Give the backbone structure.
Amino acid sequence: MSALVLNNLSKTYTKGAVIAVDNFSLKVEKGELFGLIGPDGAGKTSIFRMLTTLLLPDGGSATVDGYDIVKDYKAIRNRVGYMPGKFSLYQDMTIEENLDFFATVFGTTVQENYELIKDIYVQIEPFKDRRAGKLSGGMKQKLALCCALIHKPTVLFLDEPTTGVDSVSRKEFWEMLKRLKEQGITIMVSTPYMDEATLCDRIALMQTGKILSIDTPQNIISAYPENLYAIKSNKMFKLLKDLRQYENTLSCFAFGEYLHLSLVNDTQTTLNELNEWLKNNEHLNIEIKKIEATIEDCFIKLLNTQNANTGN
Amino acid sequence: MQTPVIKTEKLTKRFGDFIAAKELSFEVYPGEIFGFLGANGAGKTTAMRMLCGLSKPSSGTATIAGFDVYRSPNEIKKNIGYMSQKFSLHEDLTVMENIRFYGGIYGLSNEQLKTKSAELVELLGLQNETKKLVSELPLGWKQKLAFSVAVIHQPKIVFLDEPTGGVDPVTRRQFWDLIYDASDKGIAVFVTTHYMDEAEYCNRVSIMVDGNIEALDTPVNLKKQFSVNSMEEVFYQLARGAKRKAD
C-alpha cells in the first residue's frame, strides 16, 4: 500500500476564482522522500493542508496510509507529523514545555520516542529552558521538527523547512532528513530551492497548481531535450543580450557564473560559427562547454514550454 | 576614480554587550552591483538599517549618497531606494495608486508623476493592469513593480533585501534583468540573497560572518582566494565556522 495517494485532488479559493491545486494525482511509497518543488503560489501549502486534514478539497480524493483525508481525518491526525511553513509552536513556552506538550497531546512521552529525535534534540537541549519565541531561526526549525516527530509519525509533512535559511543550515537540515528517512519514515517536503530537488528520491515540479513533471531527479535531468552549453566571456550582460538576438539561439539564460545556452541546429559548424560571431561582437576570453542540465534548467524549460503553449 | 555612493569606515553597532556589526569598512560605486551575503544572524539586517538611515551606528563613519548617517539620516532616506520581499507595495491599492503613492512620498511633482508613471507602466507592460489591485497580480509582477517604484525617484543607490525569495527561476532571472538595467543607468545596487548563483551576477560580493565582513572581492577573485569553483563553496567555507545562529 502506498503511503500517499492523491487522485485528481483540487482546491480553489474565493468561490472558485483562484485555482490553488488543479487536479493533482500522484503516489508516494512508504519510506520515500518526496519533494514538491515550486515557487510561491504553486499550491504546495494547500496540498499539505489537505493531506493533514486541515483543509477540505473541492474535488478528487486522497489517502494517507490508506485512510481517507475527509472520512478518516481523526486517524490521520494521529499518524502524521506536520511542520508548517510558518512557525506555529507556543512562543511563550520553553523548548522543553513545547516538546512535552506535543508528546502529551498525542498520548505519549518524550522518553518513549526519544531515539527518534535524539540527533536533533541534543543540538537545542542546552537551551531547553528558553522560550520558543526567543529562539533563533535555526533553533526554532529544529524544535518544530522535534515536535512534529515526537509521536513517531508514519508520514512527515514539511512545508518549506529551509526557506529563508542560509545555505549552511540548509545542508544540515537535509542531513537530518536523510537520517529520518533511514528510520523508515515517509517524508513529503516542499521547497522553492531547485538545488534541493536532487536530495529527494522523487519530485514533482509544480507551478500555479499544476504538475509540470513527476519523476526521479535523475530521470527528469536525463529527459532534458537538447544539448546544453555553459558559456561565458569578459562581458556577461552584453553576452546575454547578444545571445538573445543570435539567430541560432533556442534558449539562453543566466546561470551563476555562466549563461546556459541551447542551439537550433546543434552541430559542430554551428558552434564554430557562434564562436566567430562572438569574437566579431567584441567578446574576449570566450569559454563554451557542454554540460548536464540541472533541475533548475529543466524547470525553466518546462515553464517556457508551458507558457508557449498557453500563449503567455 | 568615481566618488563612492556608499563609504563606511569602522561602522559598528552594539546592542548592550552584543556587537551586531563590527567595524565594517567598504565602498560601493555608482552602477556597481554589490552583493551583501552572510549567514542568518551574521548582522546583515543591522548593517543595512544603518546604511538606510534607520538605525544610528554606535561608532565609525558612513556616508550614503553624499549624506552623513549621523547628521542627515532623513536626507539619506530621500535619496535611496529600498525594496524587501515582505512589505513593499500596498496590496489594497491599485497598480497606478501604488506608483502615485510612492512617487508622492519621494517628492515627485505632479508633472513628473505623470510622465514617470506612464513610462513605468509601459516598461513593465502593465498597460491593462493599472486599475487592478496589487493583490491580484502574480508575485513576479509584484516584484517588478516593487522594484520600479523603489527607483522611481532615480536614487543613486537602491537597497534590495532578498528580493527574489520564493520566486520561480524564470521570474527570478527577469528580475535580474531589471537590476542590470538600473546598474547600466548608473544606479548602484546593494542586494542580499540566499541564492548563491545570484552572487555570481554581482560585480563584487561581501560575506559577513558573526558581525564582521570576512571577505570582499569580485566573485572570480573570491573563488581563486578560496581555491573553489563556486560562490556556494566560498560561502560554505566562511559561514560554516560561524558561532552566531540567529535570524
Notes: The first strand of chain A starts at residue 4 and ends at 13. Chain A has ten helices and 14 strands. Chain A touches chain B at residues 38-41, 136-139, 163-169, 171, 192-194, 207, 236-237, 253-257, 296, 299-300, 303-304 (CB under 8 Å). Chain A has a mean pLDDT of 93.
